[in-house]
Amino acid sequence: MNELELKYGCNPNQKPAKVYRADGGELPITVLNGRPGYINLLDALNGWQLVRELKAATGLPAATSFKHVSPAGAAIGRPLSDTLKKIYFVDDLGELSPLACAYARARGADRMSSFGDFVALSDKCDVSTAKILKREVSDGIIAPDYEPEALEILAAKKKGNYAVIRIDSDYTPAPIEHKEVFGITFEQGRNNIELDETVLDNIVTKNKELPEQAKHDLLISLITLKYTQSNSVCYVSDGQAIGIGAGQQSRVHCARLAGQKADNWFLRQSPKVMSLDFAEGIGRADRDNAIDNYIGETYMDVLGNDVWRKYFRTRPDVYTAEEKRQWLDTMSGVSLGSDAFFPFRDSIDRGAKSGVSYIVQPGGSVRDDLVIEACDEYNMVMVCNGIRLFHH
């Protein structure tokens, strides 16, 4: 197949729309089910590159949950604790494959942002992963292949309209890429930089203890940032992104946004949230909204009326700022990556509030010394690798 006709472009008024290779070659994708849209394919192709690189860097199956050309989550296939199984709503699915664990992590880190996602998997989609997807609101999936039963499960989603794409895992694009804006064509070399542990050698802080798990997490942050709309910052813990701040003009705003998401991920695991008494029959999306509201500051107002009855059998106690801070203060060992240098120490101070112990960034700011000084104050390990990862 040389080209694929699309319903429309980014918006319904943008017609006609299609995808094809500029060199006239065969497309490396095959649509097995449904009809992917323009944005679906942008998410699919960016997501595929991300998971392929995560697999190459860590040796473990990888998954990402993409929304609007940035990942909402990305992870490798590490086993899930009982707590994570519960907050990711997979505790009733029995034994999960490593690939299913990767997707549960990628979807579960920021479930609100992942609602209606496009999924990318590094490995053949198995039944275990398809069973998770079967009950989630999702637009489609791209993977190098599918087990027959997994394909059958996925093809039944969205009344048979779920987009299922198979990609040729051997496909390598041309070294030069093109992009057209306002009738003008841009040309650049593809960002083919390989990110492995060698990019973590230049530790600039007093603390130089960088354990293997932290190296994996820092690589996950860098590879995730490589396919996240800039400016971007990524918090990672235990093999998964737990907070991604994308597309902000100010780097500290990226750090704050990602940090807030990381905090919410950790607060979901607190005893107070884990013990919430949900109303009978409430769906996963409503649970996500209820938890987000409960964690948020505005929930004190919600408790003043009967809105809580929509979500809970019994009225929950207010989760005070002091209680939340006490729980968050137990968070540690988090890795933080930035796609460009930190111009001020403010992002380091924000990271410290979310348990950041390890940082990777390009360095090169005239204030690098002040940023390093801030890391030393918190006894953090920071790598300056000289690699900028802007993505637009």
Describe the overall structure:
This protein is an alpha/beta fold and 392 residues long. The chain folds into three domains: 3-167, Cytidine Deaminase, domain 2; 198-267 and 331-384, AICAR transformylase, duplication domain (Cytidine Deaminase, domain 2); 277-315. The chain is built from 14 helices and 15 strands. The longest helix is centred in the first third of the chain and has 21 residues, at 38-58. The protein starts with a strand and ends in an 8-residue tail after the last strand.
Ordered list of secondary-structure elements with their pairings:
Layout: E1 3-6, E2 17-20, E3 29-33, H1 38-58, E4 62-67, E5 70-76, H2 82-87, H3 98-108, H4 111-114, E6 117-121, H5 127-134, E7 138-143, H6 148-155, E8 163-167, E9 176-181, E10 184-189, H7 212-226, E11 232-237, E12 240-246, H8 251-267, H9 271-274, H10 284-295, H11 299-302, H12 321-328, E13 334-338, H13 346-352, E14 356-361, H14 368-377, E15 381-384
Parallel strand pairs: 6-7, 7-8, 13-14, 14-15
Antiparallel strand pairs: 1-2, 3-8, 4-5, 4-6, 9-10, 11-12, 11-13
